[in-house]
Design goal:
CATH architecture of the largest domain: Orthogonal Bundle
Number of helices: 14
CATH class of the largest domain: Mainly Alpha
Structural class: mainly alpha
Number of strands: 0
Helix content: over 70%
Order of helices and strands: HHHHHHHHHHHHHH
Shape: flat
Largest sheet: none
């Protein structure tokens, strides 16, 4: 049996590595020895990934080769932005392909029957995100993209670390006040109204058409009206969030309550269960996946709605206010720092809801191995 097991990522990475030798050094200030070291690391990683070795050996070699070469390429850009050669980008592609191969091996090498543990399920998206930042940094700085068009992640990170008090104040104003209050009130109100609408069908028949109409209203049309009604502080932004989160919860809860079959309901009635007993012990349990679906949808809608609403009038604090103000000043790194903060907050919020959903709806077939 051959000791080699070629794969297309490693083969393409090896070809890109060979091509990168045609343009050494990779940047104007990069030490030629570092360029050669990056080539050697990439070639070794590609060859090891084609061996019939244990997956632990392959993952270690791929991680060291891909991230080691990427580190050399990033360091080689010091004081040399815009001077990257074709060989530099070829080496970057080679490192990215090895990173791709690393994710493939961690995911079971494409096998549908592979069982991914909790650690792997976290590691794979984390590696994907890291490589997005690496490619962003290397392409922007290597090609000399103007700062105004797209700042590199390193500049955004420095601005983020240097503006923590401002970001904390914006977080408190937008998230802890407007988003949190509006999300809780909007989702809870939608849930309670759905319970009433399920009990009294004429209520649902009257509300759903109105909900469809309100959901079609543009947010940029609602936000100024809410500012006029409730003032410039966080209350008007919370009102926008309530409007945006109410109807997704209403519609999804009604759909979930209707998900139980007639056989289950008839069985509960034969045991003498009342309407509220059937609701609490059967129908709400079956509706939980729908309810959590609405909560996850609302987690992103609430943050987007509050930030956009702040464009139309707010005190001198808030994530939306900061973005609109700093864009006018051309401080793009601060704008991206606010965007990064919003992305992190939204991802953590969504992840917490997904974890809670998994705990509550552990019985659902989608969680069975």
């Amino acid at each position: 049996m051959s000791a080699f097991r070629p794969n297309w990522q490693a083969l393409l990475s090896l070809l890109a590595t060979i091509y990168s030798l045609t343009a050494l050094p990779f940047t104007a200030t990069m030490n030629p020895a570092w360029s050669i070291a990056a080539v050697v690391i990439l070639a070794a990683g590609a060859l090891v990934s084609m061996l019939r070795a244990a997956s632990s050996i392959q993952t270690t070699a791929l991680a060291l080769a891909s991230f080691g070469a990427a580190a050399l390429l990033i360091v080689g850009l010091a004081d040399a932005s815009g001077t990257a050669t074709a060989g530099y980008f070829a080496a970057l592609v080679a490192a990215w392909l090895l990173g791709w191969r690393l994710v493939t091996v961690l995911s079971g090498d494409g096998s549908r029957g592979s069982q991914s543990g909790n650690l792997i399920s976290i590691t794979v998206p984390a590696l994907f995100g890291i490589w997005v930042l690496i490619l962003w940094e290397c392409i922007v700085r290597g090609a000399g993209v103007p700062f105004v068009l797209l700042p590199p992640p390193s500049a955004i990170g420095l601005r983020f670390a240097g503006s923590l008090p401002i970001l904390a104040a914006d977080f408190r104003q937008t998230v802890l006040k407007a988003v949190l209050f509006g999300y809780v009130v909007g989702s809870l109100t939608g849930f309670l109204v759905a319970i009433l609408a399920d009990r009294f069908r004429f209520f649902a028949n009257g509300l759903l058409p109105i909900g469809n109409m309100v959901s079609a209203l543009p947010m940029i049309g609602i936000a100024p009206i809410m500012v006029i009604w409730f003032g410039f502080d966080w209350q008007s932004k919370a009102a926008v969030v309530i409007v945006m989160t109410f109807f997704p919860m209403l519609v999804n809860t009604l759909a979930g309550l209707a998900a139980t079959g007639d056989m289950e309901r008839d069985l509960m009635r034969t045991y003498g269960a009342s309407h509220w007993q059937v609701l609490l012990k059967l129908r709400l349990q079956a509706a939980m996946p729908f309810i959590f679906n609405a909560l996850k949808i609302n987690s992103t809608l609430a943050l987007i709605g509050a930030i956009v609403a702040e464009f139309f009038g707010t005190p001198i604090v808030g994530m939306g206010f900061r973005i609109s103000t700093e864009v006018g000043r051309m401080n793009l790194d601060m704008v991206w720092a606010e965007i990064a903060l919003a992305a992190v907050v939204g991802s953590l919020f969504y992840g917490a809801l997904a974890l809670l959903e998994r705990t509550v709806t552990f019985w659902h077939p989608s969680y069975r191995r």
